Amino acid sequence: MIIGVLGPKGTYTEKAARQWIEKKELENEAVLEYCADIQDVFFLLEDGGCDIGVVPMENSIEGSVGVTMDMLMEGEAHIIGETVVTIEHCLLSRGKKEDIKIILSHPQGIGQCRHSLKEHFPDAELRTTGSTSHAAKLSTEFEEMAAIASPDTAEVYGLNIVMPDIQDRKHNHTRFVVITKLDDDELKDKLKSDDPDIAYKTSIIVYLDRDRPGALYSILGEFAKSNINLTRIESRPSKKVLGDYVFYIDFEGNISDAIIKDAIYNIEPQVGMLKMLGSYPEFDSHCESN
Ligand SMILES: O=C(O)C(=O)Cc1ccccc1
């Protein structure tokens, strides 16, 4: 089974993928395919180059990962799982702290360390890369470069940890989603089936089409009426005109539950578009460590 992840070796996304692989007991079958950026994970999946993909979705400090949200809207990928990884950013370099002039990372990495960078490296040039480990790899070339990445990545690329705990807040977590293009039958052949008794979550995207008072209220009311708990609601630009949005809604429950099916049935006639992203086992922080 080929699993597309953000590369090169040493990304947090790889950590997330390994966490999910272990949970699904796929250690003997899974082969990781490293991609240059998040978009490429989706393209690899769409082109049939991998069975499964793992991509970052949202971070507790920096918020949503726009490219992941956009690619979920645009493509055929659907969500079959999620996992949460604890983020522990460090500053990695070949040189010493006083040599550092350029700091590299994925935009999420830079965003999660913004205040700390201003405080400790006010004059450094900040440059974005495809991933945290891509930044680490580039930093092996010059002593004046440093990467924001995980301590494990320092080991992979033989870099020094010049500053541990560089993130703005101690508690830092990223939620990753597991995506596929395979249908239920194909998945049944490849994956151990999920325990039907565990808690599920469902993700949808809705576009309201007609801007009118109470349109979103009415949709959210369908969830409230059925006592369905929302876990996330985010808007993204519809990309049609300024001020026009699509809404990403996550809620507790499985689309195979009658109560969820009924709520979706009631919402559908009220919206211009409803895209079902998938129902999948909710990450359980009590059972899963990382
Ligand atoms: O997976 C990575 O290493 C990335 O570059 C994306 C990212 C960046 C920061 C936190 C979590 C994921």
TrEMBL record:
Recorded metabolic or biological pathway in which this protein acts: Amino-acid biosynthesis; L-phenylalanine biosynthesis; phenylpyruvate from prephenate: step 1/1
Task: Tell me what this protein is called.
Answer: prephenate dehydratase
Q: Which residues form the ACT domain?
A: 204-281
> Record keywords: Phosphoprotein included?
no
Report the GO molecular function annotations. prephenate dehydratase activity
Record keywords, A-Z: Amino-acid biosynthesis, Aromatic amino acid biosynthesis, Lyase, Phenylalanine biosynthesis
The record's Gene Ontology cellular component field reads:
cytoplasm
Supply the Gene3D superfamilies for this chain. 3.30.70.260, Periplasmic binding protein-like II
InterPro entries, alphabetized: ACT-like_dom_sf (IPR045865), ACT_dom (IPR002912), Chor_mutase/pphenate_deHydtase (IPR008242), Preph_deHydtase (IPR001086), Preph_deHydtase_CS (IPR018528)
Species this protein is from: Methanolobus profundi
